[in-house]
Amino acid sequence: MPQYQLDVNGAAVIATVDDPAMPLLYFLRNDLGLHGPRFGCGLGQCGACTVHLDGAAIRSCVYPIGNVHGKVTTLEGLGTNENPHPVQRAFIEEQAVQCGYCINGMIMQAVAFLKRTPKPTEEEVRQELRPNLCRCGTHIRIIRAVMRASQAK
Amino acid sequence: MSTSKQAKFSRGLVWTLGGVIVLGGILAYLAFGPGATDFAPGKRVSLGTDGHDPSGVPKELANATLVERGEYLTRAADCVVCHTAKDGTPFIGGRAFVLPFGTLYSTNITPDVETGIGSYSDADFLNALHQGIGRGGKVLYPAMPYPSYTLMSDADALAIKAFLFSLTPVHAPTPSNTLAFPFNQRALMSIWSALFNPRQRYEPNIDRSDDWNRGAYLVEAMEHCGECHTPRNLFQALNNRAKFSGAVQAGWRAYNITVDRDSGIGAWSDADIAHYLSQGHSAGHGAASGPMGEAVAESVSHLSSSDTQALVTYLRTIPAVHSSDLEATKLTAASERGDVAGANLRGKEVYENACAGCHGWTGVGSVITTANLIGTRAVNDPTGINVAQIIIHGGEHYAQEQTAMPSFDTVYSDGDVAAVANYVTARFGAKATQLNAADVAKLRSLD
Amino acid sequence: MNAVIDRRRFLKGTSALIVSFAIPLTRGRAAPTSSAKPVDLNTVESFLAIAADGEVTVYSGKVDLGTGVRTALAQIVADELDVAFPTVAVIQGDTDLTPDQGPTYGSLSIQNGGTQLRQAAATARRALLQEAGKRFNVDPESLRIADGIVIGPGEKRVPLQALIAPHGLHIKMDKTAPLKSPTDFKLVGHPVQRLDIPDKVTGRFTFMQDFKIPGMYHGRVVRPPAMGATIVSIDESSVADIPGIFKVVRQENFLGVVATNEWAAIKAARQLSVKWSEWLGLPDQRQLWEHVRHTKIVKDDVTSHTGDSAHALGDAAHRIAATYDFAIHTHGSIGPSCAVAHFEDDRLICWSASQATHNLRKQLAAMFSLQDEQVRCVYIDGAGCYGRNGHEDAAADAALLARAVNAPVRVQWMREDEHGWDPKGPPTLLDMRAGLDANGKISAWESELYIPDGMAGFVALVGADLAKLNSLGTLSPGGVLNDLAIPYAIDNVKTTAHRLESTPFKPAWIRSPGRMQNSFANEAFFDEIAAHLGIDPLEVRLQYVHDARGQEVLERVATLSGWRHRPKPDRHAVTSVGRGLAYVKYELVRTYVALVCEAEVNRKTGEITPKKFFVAHDCGQIINPDGLRNQIEGNIVQTVSRVMREELLFNRSRVTSVDWASYPILQFPQVPEVVMDLIDRPNEVPWGAGEPTAALVPAAISNAVFDATGVRLRSVPFTPDKVKAAIARLAD
Questions:
Q1: What is the predicted pLDDT for the residue at A140?
Q2: Residues C275-296 pLDDT 10s
Q3: Domain boundaries in chain B?
Q4: How many A×C Cβ pairs under 8 Å?
Q5: CB burial readout C70-103, b (16+ within 10 A) else e
Q6: Which residues contact residue C719 at a Cβ distance below 8 angstroms, ignoring those fewer than 6 apart?
Q7: Shared domain check, C295 and C351
Q8: Is residue C528 a part of any domain in this protein?
Q9: By the 8 A CB rule, do C272 and C475 touch?
C-alpha cells in the first residue's frame, strides 16, 4: 500500500492508504480523528471541508491525498479553546454560530482570505465567502465576525 | 419608345438579368453544397445492391429480436438525448432548444396515443424520419435532424419504431414552442426542407471498404455528427464544403474533427479516437463534455467495438479543414509552482480553492488521470467557452470507476468562473482566454 | 467549565446510579427499564441530578438543534437553583436517561420543555431548602442559595449536594413550588454566551458525523434510480476488487455496502452494478398544481368558522379571489444525515441526530420486532435539520446494516441521498376569497387549503419501506392546519383544509410547516384587499387586530421601519424599491411578529433583491436575547433563500435536484440586513422563536414587490421568470 508523508497541524504523519485518489478529508477525519474539516457534500460545492495547504484554503473533499504536498492545517491547528486564533475568537465574541456545521469552512476560508486582504470591505467578505454555504442563515453574524477579526489585528 | 431609350432599356435589362443570374449562382453555390459523403470519390449504388448494405445491426445482434435490434439502433441514432428534458424522464420530450429566434421543445416519442407517437403508423414514422413531416402533415423543425436520418434504411427506421413502441406510454404533453415570426410558420420550413433535405437513403460507395461504408452509415445516417460538427450556411443548412470543421451549439463548441493535424484530430491515433468514442475520454486530448458528453454516454459508448472501429475508419478520411483560430495544442505541462499569467490573482485563488487538488499545478492531474488538462482541445481554445461550461456543468458520469468532476454552477460567481477559466487557459493552454462575467452569464442563460 | 458532551459526566450520574454506554442487559423478553434512573414526567429526578461534587446534570428530552436551547435550559436551571452556571451540563435526547417531553419542534422547547425543567428545579430547590431548614433548625424562608451553597443565619453553609440524601431527588414535581421572580434572574433574560460555540469554533465539538465507537464499520446505502424501483439483479463481483469491502447487504429492495474504511464504502456504493426495474410513478412536474388540485380529498377540516361567509360573499359589493401556491422544498441540511447502530445481546442502541428519539425508538422497535425497552436511542447533535429530515432514516439504514454484519455500523448519507430521499415539505395550494361591503368593510373571508392528510406522526423510514418492514409510518406532513385561521376580527370567516389522500413525495414538517404557506396566502391576500380598498396595509391591519400585544408589534415595526413616511416607488422605473408588511400571532395563541421587507425589483431582469428586514417580535419572556436575535436572523435568511430560489426538481422517477448546483440556496452576496425591536415580558410565559418570523417572510417580500411594481407574486419561489411573466401580464 502506498504511503504518504504529510505534515498536519505541525506534526509529521504517515498516511497508508490503498487509493491515492482518496480525498484528504477522509484521512484527516478517520485516520487522525480530526473533527474540524467536515463532510458536507463531497463535491467541493459547500466548503464545509476546507483546510489550509501551505496557508491556502482548499476543499479537502475533492483533494486526492496522493496530490497533497505541503503543510496541512485544520481548524484544530489554528487555535484552541484556551488559545483561540483571532478569527476563532471573533466568532465566539459575535456568537456567529447556529448549528455550527458550516463554521469550519467559514473560519478556514476567512483566515486564508484575511492573509491576502487584511482590511476587506463587507462587500469583499461577501464575495469571498460566496462559495461557502450556510443553511441556518448565520451569514449576518459571520460577516460581522470576519470584519471584527480584520479590525482587531 | 425611341431607339436610344429602347437600347438603354435593353442594356438595363441585360445587366439586371445578368445580375440576377450571378446572384442566383452565388446563392445556389451557397445553398446547394455537396452531400454528406460527396468528399469521397467512388461509385455509388443504391442500398442493398449486390449485397452492399452497411445498415442494420452488428453481427453480434444478428439473431436478436426486432425490439432488441431496434434498441441498438435507437441508441445509435441518439434519440434519447434530444427527446428527454434535462434530468427528465427518457423519451417523453420537453427538452428546450434555445435559439436566437425563440425556444423549441422536443416531443414525446413514447407510444402514448394522446401526447406521444402511439397513433403513428409505419408510414407516418418513415415520413417523420425521412421527410421531416409529422403525422397529420405537420412539418418538423430541423432541430429534428431529418436531413441526416433520411439516409437511414426503412428497415432500421422501423426497428427503431418497434423499440419505441415497446416503451411504457407516458402521458406528457409537449410544451408550446415560443418562436418569433416568421419562424413559427411551419409552412416556411417545407420550403427549407425541399431545398435542403436530400430525401434519399444512404448509397454505399463500392470503391470503399465495408468497414468504411458501415462507418459512413453510422456517422451520417444514425449518429448525425455533422448536425453539430459541420458549420451551417446562410440558410442554416449544413455546409459540407467545410465538413466536420466545427461549430458552436447552444454555447458549447463542437470541435473540428477533420484530419487537420493542428486544429482537428489528425494527430490522434486510432486508439485515441476509439477510446474517446467508447469511454468518453482520450488521454492528452480531452473528455467528452456537455452535449458530446451526453452523446457518448447515451449513444456512442453503446456501440459494439466493431461499429466503433468503423467510425474510426470513416473519420480518418474526412478531408482536412483548418480552423483558423485553433492552434496546435500545447503539450508541455506547466511548472510545479510559479505563475504564468501573473496578474490573474482571482483566477489563481479560485483554482487553488477547488481545482488544484485534482488537476494539479502542472495540469497533469497525476492521481486522477482523466483530470489531465495538458493537450486538451478545450483548454487550447482561445474562446474558452467549453472550459467555462465544464466548470458550470461538471463532468459526465458515464465511466463508473472515474471520479466525475462536480458542477460548480451557482457555487462560483460569473466573474469567478471567468477568472478561473482564463487562468486555466493561460497556465495550461496555447493561448490565454479573455472571458468576463457577462460572457459567463450569457453561457448560463443558454442552458 | 460546562461540558457539552462529557463522557465523564455521562458516566457519573447521580449518587444513586451508574450510567454508561455498556449497560448490563437483561436477557429474555420484555426487559424492564434497563437503568434505575427514572424518566417519567412527574419525578424531579427524571430531569435533574446533583452529583457528589456539586455538578448539576439536566436531563432534557428536548434537544438543541443548533438553536442554543441547551444553553437556555442551563440558564433556566442555574437561575432557579442558584448554582454556578459552569456546573450545569445538559444530557439530551437519550431514551434511557431523559424523559419523553415530546419531539423537539414547533418552537416549543423553551415554552414546554423549559417550563417543565423550571418546575423540576423549583421543586428541587424547595425540597432541598426544607432539608437544610431541618438541619439548621431554622425556617427555610430564612435561607438563600449562592453558587450552589445554602447559606443560613450565622453564616451556616451546606452545599446542595450534601442535602440530597436520603430522599435524593426522587420526589414528585410540584406545580406549587415557588418560581424565582424575574427580577432575581441573573442568567435568564441575559445574553449568556452559548456553551457549545467555543468547541464548534475550535473543532473540539463532536457532531453526530464525528461519532465513533470501537469496532465500527462504515456503511453506505445504494438507493434505486427510481423511487419505486425493485432490484432485478446485483453483480457483487463489481465491487470485489475494492480493498476494505466487507459485505453487500440486501433485504428486499434495501441495498447497502459495508466496509472497513469510509472511502471503500463510498466507492463500493458508486461502483456496485445493480439492475433495477423501471418506475414512473411521480407526476409531471410541469403539471404539479393540476395534480394537487385533482388529488382525491379524504376529508375536510374546517379550522375556523364564524358567521356565514357564503352568504356574506354573495351579498358583498366587491369580491376578490386569488390562488396561492408554494413549491416542494427539501430540508437541505448542510451536514447530511448520519447514524451509528449496534446490536448488542438483544438490545439495539442507535445514535442519531433525530429531533424525536423517543419516537424513533418505537419505530425501530417495530421494525426489528423488539420491545421498546430493548431499543435505546441517543441524540448527538447533527447539522441543522429544520424539521424531520433524514436523521431517522439514516438510523434505520445503520440498524439494518449493523444487524446484517453483527457489528456496529456507521451510515453517512451522501449529498444525493440527503437531497434525493429525505422527506419533503409538500406542495401547497390555497384558494382565497374575500368580500367587501359598500362601506369598505371586509365582510367575508374564505380560504381553501389543499394539503395532505395527517399530522405530525411517525414518518415511515426509508430503509424500512425498501426492506418491506413496518416502521409505524403514517402520512405526516406536520401541523399544517395551523395559521390557516386568521388573527383578524372579520365577522364571517370560513377556513377549510381539504385533506388529500396522497402527495408526490413522502411529506414531513419543514420549518414552520403549513404555517408558512398559510401565512403567505393570508398576509399577501390581506395586502390585496388593502390595495383594493386603497387603505394602507398597516392601517387596515390595525383596524382588524383587536389584540393589544398584536397592535403593539405592528406599531413598533412601523416606527422601526419608518413605515408611515416611506417613499412611494416609481412603478415604471427599471428598478424600484418597495416595502411590504406582514403580521402573525403564531397559531393564534403565541408569539407575535410584525415584519417589514424592503426589496428592490428590476423589471427587465425580473430579479428581486430583498435588502432589509425590520422585525418587531414579542415572544413573552426572553430567556437569552442574543440567542433570540440569532434565531430571528436565521429565520429570515433561511426563508429568503426558500422564497427566492428553492424548488425541488424531479422527473417521473426520482428527485433530480440532488446537489447544491441543482438546488441552490442563498449565498453571502444576497443576504439582507436585519434590524429588530425585541419586546421582553419577563412575567409572561416564554414562547418560542424558532419559526414565527420565518412564516412572514414570503408575504413580506411579495407585498414589497407589489409596492415596487404593482405586480402580485402568488407562487413560491419568486423566480425572475415568474416576475417577468407577471409584469408582462400586468402590461396587457
A1: 98
A2: 999 999 999 999 999 999 999 9
A3: 51-196, 210-315, 345-445
A4: 185
A5: bbbbbbbbbbbbbbebebbbbbbbbbbbbbbbbb
A6: C606, C644, C645, C647
A7: no
A8: no
A9: no
pLDDT at C420 over 50: yes
Which residues form the domain of C397?
209-278+332-421
Q: Does residue C30 carry a pLDDT above 70?
A: no
The residue extents of the domains of chain A are 3-77, 79-151
| Residue partners of A76: CB distance under 8 A and separation at least 6 | A9, A34, A35, A36, C202, C203, C204
| pLDDT for the residue B431 | 93
DSSP-derived pairing of the beta strands C575-585 and C88-92 = unpaired
Q: Each residue of B192-201: b (16+ CB within 10 Å) or e? A: bbeebbeeeb
Starting at the earlier edge strand, list the strands of the sheet with C254-259: C245-251, C254-259, C217-221, C409-412, C338-344, C347-352, C375-379
- Taking an 8 Å cut-off on Cβ atoms, the answer to whether C660 and B411 are in contact is yes
* C148 located within any domain: yes
Based on the fold, state whether residues C648 and C569 are members of the same structural domain.
Answer: yes
User: Does the CB of A131 have a partner CB in chain C at under 8 Å?
Assistant: yes
| Domain final residue pick, C158, C193, C228 | C193
Instruction: List pLDDT tens digits, range C390-415.
Output: 999 999 999 999 999 999 999 999 99
Handedness of CA C590, C595, C601, C603 (dihedral sign): positive
Among A9, A18, A39, A87, the residue to mutate for chain C (most C Cβ within 10 A): A39
* A102 vs C contacts (CB less than 8 Å): 334, 383
Cα–Cα distance for residue pair C23/C32, rounded to 1 Å? 13
**All chains having 3 or more CB pairs closer than 8 angstroms to chain B:** A, C
Kindly indicate the confidence band of residue B306, based on its pLDDT and cuts at 50, 70 and 90. Answer: very high
pLDDT value of residue B397:
61
Q: How far is C383 from chain A (nearest CA, A)?
A: 5
Do residue C660 and residue B410 have CB atoms under 8 angstroms apart? yes
User: Which CATH architecture fits B345-445?
Assistant: Orthogonal Bundle (1.10)
Q: Residue C486 sits in a domain of what CATH number?
A: 3.30.365.10
Q: Do C668 and A139 touch (CB under 8 A)?
A: yes
Domain A79-151, what architecture?
A: Orthogonal Bundle (1.10)
Would the pLDDT of C236 be above 70? Answer: yes
Instruction: State how far residue B273 is from chain C, nearest Cα, in angstroms.
Output: 26
One domain, residues C470 and C388: no
* Cross-chain residue pair A45–C381, CB shorter than 8 Å: no
Residue B135's pLDDT band, with cuts at 50, 70 and 90, is very high
> Is there a shared CATH topology between the B210-315 domain and the B345-445 domain?
yes
How close is the nearest chain B Cα to the Cα of A152, in Å? 25
Task: Mark whether C11 and C86 lie in a shared domain.
Answer: yes
User: Which of C202, C510, C675 is the mutation pick for testing A, counting most A CBs within 10 A?
Assistant: C202
Tens digits of pLDDT across chain A (153 residues): 889 999 999 999 999 999 999 999 999 999 999 999 999 999 999 999 999 999 999 999 999 999 999 999 999 999 999 999 999 999 999 999 999 999 999 999 999 999 999 999 999 999 999 999 999 999 999 999 999 999 985
Task: Give per-residue pLDDT as tens, C649-671.
Answer: 999 999 999 999 999 999 999 99
Same domain, C493 and C610: no
Q: Could you tell me if C323 lies within 8 Å of chain A, comparing CB atoms?
A: no
- B85 to chain C: closest CA residue: C651
CB contact under 8 A, B411 and C661: yes
**For range B14-37, the mean pLDDT:** 84
- C50 pairs with which residues across the strands? C56
For A91, the closest chain C residue by CA position comes to C201
Q: Are B56 and B155 in contact (CB under 8 A)?
A: yes
Query: Residue B129 carries which DSSP code?
Result: I
Q: Which residues of C touch B401 (CB under 8 A)?
A: 271
| Overall number of domains in chain C | 4
* CATH number for the segment(s) B210-315: 1.10.760
Compute the nearest-CA separation of C261 from chain B (Å): 18
Please state, in angstroms and rounded to a whole number, the distance separating the CA atoms of residues C114 and C285: 43
Query: Nearest C-alpha of chain C: how many angstroms from A72?
Result: 15
Hey, what CATH class is A3-77 in? alpha beta
Q: How many residues does chain A have?
A: 153
Which of B88, B89, B410 comes nearest C661 by C-beta? B410
